[in-house]
Design brief:
The chain is of the alpha/beta class. The chain is built from 16 helices and 6 strands.
Length: about 375
């Protein structure tokens, strides 16, 4: 036991002497969580809107003022013709154009209603869809609440340039009651934070531990380990413990940034969220130790953990894209990605605030994976040099 603790102490000292590694362990998670939380966002902001109207009408002017007051849009100005509007969009000066036909107000109060054309730059189809949807909500609310009377307004759908979506007259009007559960502000950080937690912990834990045993082989200190009385199981544990402690510190750093900087609340049990994260950390450490036991150079170990794990975690874990939208073979592949189960569990606990009984499947699967990878790492650890 004394030899075991001495080995653990040696690993801690080795990590603290390497300040560059320590900087990566602490600095990389901070950079990634801030980057994904602020820079990478699915929310639209500062969308430039141009206007073409054949008539000078106060109702249209008030509508554009309301759009400009929105945090999502910036009103650029009125253009003299549709050609000028098109040229401004080609030059990138505007992203969305609103076009009101002649006699808009008189048509507005007619039985057939009036038409508003919304034209968006669909080179980015996701942004264009959201821009049209946001503008449609503002316009609909304006003509429902600010203009009294029996009014019908037609607005184009995102699928066509000038198709009609009719908002019925105020008499006998049926208005949908929509609610957004768990994320009413539709903040993208609520979606990215669980995913980036899974990515950071997987990279930090597997990448750092994957080079630990390989480093001993390359520096020639493996012979000392082999003649020592420490068993292979204790050697693997001693190498994992320092990185486990550092990973827990990284986890607390991520949570503090998430709660106090990104303003993402923890709706569920903080204890169970920490426990799920600890299981995932052990699983990631086991993967790193298995890679370290299989390869012979640090470069190969780094490439395997950095490339082989990075792409699957980002593409097949549900971090960026919903798994249900993937082809069936890729959905099957996603089931063996450890980060997929961690992200699902964290979203349920942290964002939805569900009790732990709703994440027992994810916990059991991650526990089984952790046992399997850790056992494989111990079995593959060589008690003699090749």
């Amino acid at each position: 036991m004394k030899e075991f603790f001495s080995f653990v102490r040696k690993e801690f000292l080795h990590i603290f002497r390497d300040r560059r590694t320590l900087l990566v362990l602490i600095g990389l998670p901070t950079m990634l969580i801030v980057l994904f939380g602020f820079a990478i966002s699915t929310e639209i902001r500062n969308v430039n809107v141009g206007l073409f109207s054949e008539d000078s009408d106060m109702a249209v002017t008030r509508l554009m003022e309301k759009i400009d007051r929105s945090e999502y849009f910036t009103y650029i100005g009125k253009f003299p013709s549709e050609e000028a509007l098109d040229e401004a969009m080609r030059q990138g000066r505007i992203d969305v154009a609103l076009m009101f036909g002649k006699d808009f107000i008189s048509r507005l109060y007619s039985p057939d209603g009036a038409e508003v054309s919304v034209v968006a730059d669909a080179t980015n189809p996701n942004n264009a869809t959201m821009e049209v949807m946001y503008l449609g909500n503002i316009i609909s609310e304006y003509f429902r609440s600010d203009i009294a009377g029996a009014v019908s307004v037609r607005m184009p759908s995102p699928d066509a340039d000038a198709s009609d979506v009719v908002i019925p007259a105020s008499a006998g009007r049926l208005e949908p009651n929509m609610r957004m559960l768990y994320n009413p502000q539709l903040k993208s950080s609520y979606n990215f934070v669980p995913g980036i937690m899974g990515l950071i912990l997987m990279l930090i834990c597997s990448l750092m531990t994957s080079v630990s045993i390989v480093r001993e082989k390359e520096t020639g200190s493996m012979e000392v380990l082999l003649v020592s009385p420490v068993r292979p199981l204790n050697i693997v544990l001693a190498k994992m413990i320092p990185y486990f402690v550092i990973a827990c510190v990284v986890l607390l750093n991520i949570l503090l940034l998430t709660i106090f900087v990104l303003k993402v609340p923890v709706a569920g049990s903080f204890f169970w969220m920490i426990l799920v994260s600890v299981i995932y950390i052990i699983l990631s450490l086991g993967i790193g130790m298995l890679v370290s036991s299989l390869v012979k150079t640090q470069i190969i170990a780094t490439l395997i953990c950095g490339m082989l794990f990075l792409v699957p975690v980002m593409m097949f874990s549900g971090m960026l894209y919903p798994i249900e939208s993937m082809p069936v073979p890729l959905q099957w592949l996603a089931q063996i990605i450890p980060a997929k189960w961690f992200i699902e569990a964290i979203r349920k606990i942290m964002i939805e605030g569900v009790p732990v009984r709703y994440v027992t499947t994810e916990i059991l699967i991650m526990t089984g994976m952790a046992v399997a990878f850790f056992s494989a790492a111990v079995l593959k650890f060589r008690d003699k040099l090749d």
